[in-house]
Structure formats: structure tokens, C-alpha cells
Amino acid sequence: MSEVLGLDGIEKTYNAGKPNEIKVLRGAGLTVAAGEVVALVAPSGSGKSTLLHIAGLLDTPTAGTVRLLGEDMGSLGDGRRTEARRAQVGFVYQFHHLLPEFTALENIVLPQLANAVERGAAEARAMDLLASVGLDNRASHRPAELSGGEQQRVAFCRALANGPALLLADEPTGNLDPGTSDTVFQALMALVRETGLAALIATHNLDLAARMDRTVRLDNGLLV
């Protein structure tokens, strides 16, 4: 399987050189291949969100290399990094962050329009994604009219709207009850399997982690 995400020697230090210096990551390394779903398990405050932000090009490491589809992201300027993030990375968070004034369909269409996709094609793609998670009959509903599980499934569809190579998810079922969490997780796994993308999913739920391809643990700033 071909590498989609590569992290080598990732370090992240806040307030470097000051008395209150905090070393969050101390040389973390990881590769995630196309079609692979990797669980990231870590206690709160261990730096998993920092790691995800670095992997997703929302933050830069103090040291180390981030590769996306084989390209060293540290060698790119801010503009190119933004383009790479927009085109190749999808994000899902514990809280869905859907735009409340727009319908489920529109929430999935908007990121495509920002990526210069023609509206008709964007709407067709959005409907296909909604159908794949059983929500095509809810396309015209706004987030407030959807259940928590439905909102999170729409958020998955939005993350995949532009056909990214990498999906990063930070506790995507952490705000849901166990039954809904299982339904949402199954929908997520089906989307990942159908598209063949690489996925790194942070979770506290060890049962969900066990259903992914492998698990890595963030321990004292290192991935083990």
C-alpha cells in the first residue's frame, strides 16, 4: 500500500527556551497508507490534537518532517500548504461544526464551491455522499433538525466532499451515546473503505479502536 501520511521525528515545543517550556511531542513517527484506518489512542492533554493539527497542516512542528503523498510539506510556502490541506485533507471533530443556517446538502456543497467545483457537480457529489450514509432523505434539513448522529454523519460527508487522500478525526464519536456512536462509526468505516483513503482517528473508545486496522498510542510525546 502506498504511503499517504508520513511523520518522521515530529517534535513540538511551546515557549521554547523559557522557564515554562512544554515539550508536547518528542520525536513522534508514523506512516498511514492508502486504505488504512489507524486508531490514535492517548490520554487527555497528551498532545493528540497537536499531532493531528500537525498531520493536517494546521500547525507546524518545531522539528521533524511531515509528508503528504510523498511530498515534504515543510518545503512548501504557506500558500501551497493551504492548497494541499484544502485538496488532500479532510477533518472531523468531536462536535460537528456544521453551519447552522445551511442545509445538510449545502454544508457539503460549500467546501466544493470553495475548491472551484461547478455547483451542479457539487450537489450531485453531496447527494451521493448523503445516500452512502443513509441521509439522502434529510438533505434539505438544517443541522438543528437533525439528531446528533445525523449531524456527525453529515460532518463526515463534508470532510470527504473534495475527495481527500487523508481523513483526520478527533474523537468523532465522543459526543454520542454508545448506540449512536456505533452507527456513526460504521458509516465512517464504510465511507473510508469505499474511497480507499487513509484515516487517522483519535479515540478514547478502545472497542472502536480495536475495530480499526491497527492502534498507535501517544506516550510521553512518542507514538508506540
TrEMBL record:
Domain ABC transporter, chain residue ranges per copy: 5-224
Pfam assignment, any one: ABC_tran
Keywords: ATP-binding, Lipoprotein, Nucleotide-binding, Transport
SMART domains: AAA
UniProt-listed GO biological process terms: lipoprotein localization to outer membrane; protein localization to outer membrane
InterPro entries, alphabetized: AAA+_ATPase, ABC_transporter-like_ATP-bd, ABC_transporter-like_CS, ABC_transpr_LolD-like, MacB-like_ATP-bd, P-loop_NTPase
UniProt KW Transport keyword: yes
Domain of life assignment: Bacteria
GO cellular component: plasma membrane
GO molecular function, one term: transmembrane transporter activity
UniProt xrefs under PROSITE patterns: ABC_TRANSPORTER_1, ABC_TRANSPORTER_2
Gene3D superfamilies: P-loop containing nucleotide triphosphate hydrolases (3.40.50.300)
Keyword Nucleotide-binding: yes
Family statement: Belongs to the ABC transporter superfamily.
Name of the protein described by the UniProt record: Lipoprotein-releasing system ATP-binding protein
